């Protein structure tokens, strides 16, 4: 199922997007494009920001949308399919030469998988309360050679992402990307203002990189 281009929230009209770096927001399970769009005031306004809606509907009575079925948490097939669908939307509906991703939870996993699938396509990833999907991809060696910047933030009291996936991510990420980020004491499966300040600093540094 494809992403719906009619429900994407953009920070600026189409006429103001040319020549500017694009930051795409990918929400978590049971949410929609309006959720992470609330972060826009905290993010550098040099980016054109697009907040997209995942294409799947969770089982009733869960509201919102999903990138892959929740029972596929930790499996690579669903995450890879979701990342492939997202890249197809990007190919069809954007022309930005510099693209970064910011995903929360499921959206974080999909963002990292998209980076793995096309290491040269994405400038960086911000992974909030997400994880790296287990399983090797043919493109992982190219990713490790390029080592793009990734910010990973998570809470010390986040009990949503299973510990084995966190442990896998802790081991896998430093070997494949230029990793930065923090574990925030007392934070659950959510985002704090302290974390947003760190994300903004990370994004400002990436803008500096793109300007070089």
What's the SSE blueprint?
Blueprint: E1 9-10, E2 22-26, H1 33-37, E3 48-52, H2 76-93, E4 99-104, H3 106-117, E5 122-128, H4 140-146, E6 149-155, H5 163-176, E7 178-184, H6 193-211
Helix pairs in contact: 2-3
Q: Mind explaining what this structure looks like?
A:
- The chain is of the alpha/beta class and 212 residues long.
- It has a single domain (5-211), classed as Alpha/Beta hydrolase fold, catalytic domain (Rossmann fold), CATH 3.40.50.
- The protein is 35% helix and 18% strand.
- It has helices at 33-37, 76-93, 106-117, 140-146, 163-176, 193-211; strands spanning 9-10, 22-26, 48-52, 99-104, 122-128, 149-155, 178-184.
- It has a seven-stranded mixed beta sheet with strand order 1-3-2-4-5-6-7, with helices on both faces.
- Helix 2 (76-93) crosses helix 3 (106-117).
- The longest helix has 19 residues, at 193-211.
- The mean pLDDT is 96.
Task: Offer a concise description of the structure.
This is Alpha/beta hydrolase-fold protein. With 212 residues, this protein is α/β, with parallel strands linked by helices. The protein is built from 6 helices and 7 strands.
